[in-house]
Amino acid sequence: MDAFETYQTPLSSRYASKEMAYLFSPAQRFETWRKLWLNLAIAEKQLGLPITDEAIEQMKANLKLTAEQFEIAAKEEKKRRHDVMAHVHTFGTVAPAAAGIIHLGATSCYVTDNADLIFLREGLGYLIRGLAVLITRLSSFAAEYRALPTLGFTHFQPAQLTTVGKRATLWIQELLWDLRNLKRARDDIGFRGVKGTTGTQASFLTLFDGDHDKVVELDKLVTELSGFEYAYPVTSQTYSRKVDIDILAPLASLGATAHKIATDLRLLANLKEVEEPFESTQIGSSAMAYKRNPMRSERVCSLARHLMVIQQNALMTSSVQWFERTLDDSANRRISLPEAFLTADIVISTLTNVSEGLVVYPKVIARRIAQELPFMATENIIMAIVKKGGDRQEAHEKIRVLSHEAGYQVKQLGLENDLIDRVRKDAYFDPIKDELDTLLDPASFIGRAPEQVDAFLKDWVQPAVASEELQQAIQKSVKVDLNV
């Protein structure tokens, strides 16, 4: 393997989107370093340092690295044992007029930390847009099945009815919170700026002969040239690693949401009520040919668990940064930060894939309702008898006895729930027998679930994804789906 190949996207990002994989690739990292060196030179020249137009133009013309430059950088790093200085030298080989002023006054963290902040902000943007697509897909699913009754579960035991669409809104609501949290994190990211070796800007004060105003203006100019609205007012050699905690926290929370959604889908697959997409040639088991394993949802759960714990690295790293800095953060962050974003990207894209092909089996759902609804309808039956002039206590006792008889059929004999047949055969219930079908209509047990779905999608989902950024992402995803 040559040096250029060693700098390519790591294997761990193979299943992430191309955009996210490239964002954390060495090629993007070193190009960003060159842009930061260019921005620093432009600002320093504007404030009076002797930097030529030729130097600036050569830097602008060579922001992307070639395979040959990767080779040079690899050799230099092996010799110097310092990645930043290796790339300062490499940049100077293609921008010789700038070789003497590249990195002027800066410390390594000028490029490494500022580049990381750029990547984290861009990465959050990718996740935000992907999340909007996922929310839109699940919202379409919720709207389609807004009124389809299904058995609710509490403690994974049969409970009152809900609807398939209403259950989906519970997933979407948590995703909306994740969307909000990711936006907050992105909007809060600042720039490290131009702060020097221990954050005092001493080297830049020397460059500008003690002119404090020019040093302040330099920090402001480079921040603006790099696309940030503000720089952190004080830093050490690095930006505070507490920033990483604030960024990884919403990613970990997204992991919890994804795990809950995927777990629900795995349970529904076992019930045979709702299944994730299953290809016609897909094999569920090497031994059991009939199996249709929810492998995508299982993959989401697996990755989500990893995503939820990555934040622990940021917490521990932040807590042990001695004084102005220590280097035991570097190797950890080079793994944990890209992994968190790549993992979150895969989790979102996999859930989106699942949501686009969910298969609902209404007859299976109806059969399960029929098995449980008679017991749930007993109160309605009692109330109907009372309205016809019957005695509540007597009606209650009649239903209690019949319910136990039906329960025996189900639990002891493994037969179907025949409670309603028993009610129909008992002369005591003659006054309401023509009402039983109405009393047992599943639609009468779902409350306001359909209306809740409608209101939720209109009042909460639509405003959350209404921005131009998110609408463009949604429209782009539709074009990709349609291959147009």
TrEMBL record:
GO terms for biological process: 'de novo' AMP biosynthetic process; 'de novo' IMP biosynthetic process. It is an enzyme of class 4 (lyase). CDD domains: Adenylsuccinate_lyase_2. It comes from the Eukaryota. Signal peptide: none annotated. SUPFAM superfamilies: L-aspartase-like. Belongs to the lyase 1 family. Adenylosuccinate lyase subfamily. Homotetramer. Residues from neighboring subunits contribute catalytic and substrate-binding residues to each active site. Pathway: Purine metabolism; IMP biosynthesis via de novo pathway; 5-amino-1-(5-phospho-D-ribosyl)imidazole-4-carboxamide from 5-amino-1-(5-phospho-D-ribosyl)imidazole-4-carboxylate: step 2/2; Purine metabolism; AMP biosynthesis via de novo pathway; AMP from IMP: step 2/2. Transmembrane segments: none annotated. It catalyses: (2S)-2-[5-amino-1-(5-phospho-beta-D-ribosyl)imidazole-4-carboxamido]succinate = 5-amino-1-(5-phospho-beta-D-ribosyl)imidazole-4-carboxamide + fumarate; N(6)-(1,2-dicarboxyethyl)-AMP = fumarate + AMP. It holds the Pfam family ADSL_C. The lineage of its organism: Eukaryota, Fungi, Dikarya, Basidiomycota, Agaricomycotina. Keywords: Lyase, Purine biosynthesis. Residues 373-457 form the Adenylosuccinate lyase C-terminal domain. GO terms for molecular function: (S)-2-(5-amino-1-(5-phospho-D-ribosyl)imidazole-4-carboxamido) succinate lyase (fumarate-forming) activity; N6-(1,2-dicarboxyethyl)AMP AMP-lyase (fumarate-forming) activity. It comes from Cylindrobasidium torrendii FP15055 ss-10. This is Adenylosuccinate lyase. Its EC number is 4.3.2.2. SMART domains: ADSL_C. One of its GO terms (cellular component) is cytosol.
